[in-house]
Design a protein that fits this description.
This protein is of the alpha/beta class. It contains 13 helices and 22 strands. The N and C termini lie far apart (about 70 Å).
């Protein structure tokens, strides 16, 4: 090791969900760890993206009373400028809180946080250039974990230099009340933004090249979500692409393959992401990448270079903070030889923070059919649930997918407020190979939305008995 080089057991590049949890995992077992991030504050996409957007959602619902107007016949009316100011203040407050929590976690585990841009060299050396000037630091690790996350994919020909043409990152910087906007994409981020801005009072047009929203979702529930969006006033254009974004007489113009011409105040492109790897020097270091700049890894999250690992969004889908955290922990265990976490849970719950929320875990009905599994489904509707009626949250349904031969629960799919919390009941039952008898014989508090599980299970029974 050269004079001036600083030695660590594990070097982590990126202080987002994967990086933070990997660093803490290694440090917990006594290893000397440093985390390098180009931003001055840790937290990455979890704080800057997920927490920020979800806070926007909750603030929009609370400050506008959206979807609750009909319950009491009144709504909270705030001047548009006041609404945006309070939403931004709340978002900043929560972001500061969560950034502080990440920083404290690093401090508690005696992890050194280094702000600067890292470049990977030979023999697991990182050259770190401080963003505010100062000398370059050279850090050497027994192992390196790359967890730099991803950035929005920019389709060619779209003028992202226009201040009103946004991607999924810049869309969080709402600078004024909107009357109308276009959201491009049919995935989780696009649907979340579309429903949030709809709640804030904008006329929203969603342009999606796919045939339905959230293609990973159960098809029936995808249709229920689309119906909810239409009921709320959203315009949707399926199997449609944006062919031109330009300005005419100073106004933004969006043209589509369906010959529609929309004149929004802003347009948000939320159609995929690409690995954040440009500044790392990975090709020169021999680290293999795919065509979108995402790092290729093996089952242990090791890259093509020995003792260089990668985890999180930078390796591609599912690009969920929850999964990134687990990937980081598992990668750290392999990197440091820690006999603790060796695999990432294959039964990943997916949550989409639309209005209303969506969540799923396990097999969809379509996936069960493709695998040749003889199955039945059971449905329970929020409109029939007493707690949902009390709260005025009557949009949505809970769907169970069940193996006909032995009643084993295969999948749970839900649309409705609280879905991202409620999905974990089903996840636990699937994990332990449980059947719908668990829901039938368990006692649920009433009124609760959890009680939907029991009635969906009874609906399954009716289909089983009628076969």
């Amino acid at each position: 090791m050269a004079d001036g080089d600083e030695q660590f057991d594990l070097l982590v590049v990126g202080a987002g969900p994967a990086g933070e949890k990997a660093a803490a995992q290694a440090a917990y077992f006594g290893h000397r760890v440093a985390v390098v991030d180009r931003l001055p504050d840790p937290g990455g996409a979890m704080v800057a993206g997920a927490v920020s957007t979800k806070t926007m959602r909750e603030a929009a619902l609370y400050l506008t009373g959206f979807t609750r107007h009909h319950v009491y016949g009144v709504s909270l009316e705030l001047a548009s400028e006041v609404l945006i100011d309070r939403l931004r203040a709340r978002e900043a407050e929560v972001t500061t809180l969560m950034t502080g929590a990440v920083r404290e976690n690093l401090r508690r585990h005696h992890i050194e946080f280094v702000a600067g841009t890292a470049r990977l060299g030979a023999d697991r050396r990182l050259r770190v250039t401080p963003g505010c000037g100062g000398p370059v630091r050279v850090l050497v690790g027994d192992a390196v974990l790359l967890a730099t996350g991803s950035r929005p994919y920019h389709p060619p020909g779209i003028p992202f230099d226009d201040p009103d043409v946004l991607d999924s990152d810049t869309a969080r910087a709402l600078d004024r009340p909107l009357r109308n906007l276009v959201v491009v994409g049919g995935g989780a981020v696009a649907c979340e933004y579309a429903s949030i801005f709809l709640a804030l009072g904008a006329d929203v047009s969603l342009v999606d090249r796919g045939s339905r929203l959230l293609p990973f979702l159960d098809a029936q529930l995808s249709a229920i979500l689309a119906d909810a969006f239409r009921t709320q006033g959203m315009r949707m254009f399926h199997q449609t692409e944006v062919t031109r974004v330009d300005r005419e007489a100073g106004a933004l113009v969006v043209e589509t393959s369906g010959a529609d011409v929309i004149r929004p105040e802003k347009v948000i492109f939320a159609a995929g992401r690409t690995g954040e790897t440009d500044e790392l020097g990975l090709r020169e270091a021999g680290v293999a990448l795919d065509e979108r700049g995402r790092i290729l890894v093996d089952d242990h999250y090791e890259t093509s270079v020995p003792s260089v690992f990668a985890a999180g969004d930078v390796i591609g889908p599912p690009a969920l903070a929850s999964v990134s955290m687990e990937q980081g922990r598992v990668a750290a265990c392999y990197a440091m030889g820690i006999p603790f976490k060796q695999t990432v849970d294959p039964l990943t719950p997916f949550g989409v923070y639309t209005i209303p929320e969506c969540a799923m875990v396990g097999l969809t009905e379509e996936a069960a059919a493709e695998r040749g599994i003889d199955h039945v489904v059971g449905l329970a509707w929020f409109k029939d649930n007493s707690r949902a009626a009390i709260a005025g949250s009557t949009e949505g349904a809970l769907k169970l997918v069940v193996d006909r031969k032995d009643r084993t629960l295969l999948g749970v799919h839900m649309i409705g407020e609280g879905a991202t919390e409620l999905i974990h009941h089903g996840q636990a039952v699937i994990h332990f190979g449980g059947t719908i008898d668990y829901f039938i014989h368990s006692t649920f508090d009433v009124p609760t939305v959890s009680d939907l599980y029991k009635y969906a299970a009874y609906d399954c029974l009716q289909h089983l008995e009628s076969a």
